From TrEMBL:
This is Acyl-protein thioesterase 1. The lineage of its organism: Eukaryota, Viridiplantae, Streptophyta, Embryophyta, Tracheophyta. One of its GO terms (molecular function) is palmitoyl-(protein) hydrolase activity. InterPro entries: AB_hydrolase_fold (IPR029058), LYPA1-2/EST-like (IPR050565), PLipase/COase/thioEstase (IPR003140). It comes from the Eukaryota. Belongs to the AB hydrolase superfamily. AB hydrolase 2 family.
Amino acid sequence: MASFILWLHGSGDSGPANESIKEHFTDPVFKNTKWGLPTAPSRPITINRGAVMPAWFDVTDVPITSQSVRHEDEVLKAVKDVHSMIDKQIANGISPTNVFVCGFSQGGALAIASILLYPKTLGGGVIFSGSMPLNPSIKEQVSPEATKTPILWLHGTDDKIVLFEAGESGSKFLKELGMNCEFKAYPGFGHSLMDEELEYFSSWLRSRLLSSGGVQQRRGCCSQM
């Protein structure tokens, strides 16, 4: 059965620049996996003195902490775009439980916002060095179906761009909603994607697909990583 991985890049990056992530998904489980690696619209970024670059929403301060304030209207506009991408794949026959929304930094923040506000349970979300971009009051808009989507949150303890405590705070918020959120700390890692994280990302998605029944495991192979 087909699956879909939507990868949302960080500010200043692009979708095609992240193509190499696919190299970590060589297991047969991913044989029928489709990838979406969109590039954010270009826009002026306040923290960079108005320089224009791809970004899902504006960045007004760095480092990002658990108390950082984002322009919520911009975040919600980006969420609608992500929902349209998800809806298109579901309309093409992919089960919502085989759809995974993932991202790094600002893309991770957008991923978690999109999952929380999506009306269906998805296969999962994976957040790398991300933060919670919405106010806590957003919990009133989170459906019971959305809270059933499992989350993997990975964060380096030496991240100087999105502070580690911002990741911890976001994970805590999800758990308070009753969500299954695995928070994985990487001592000494900064604000970048590391092979060790990507390998765990791949194994986590593999286990989710196998447990959902979205793929058939070959006889004689283990069902867990």
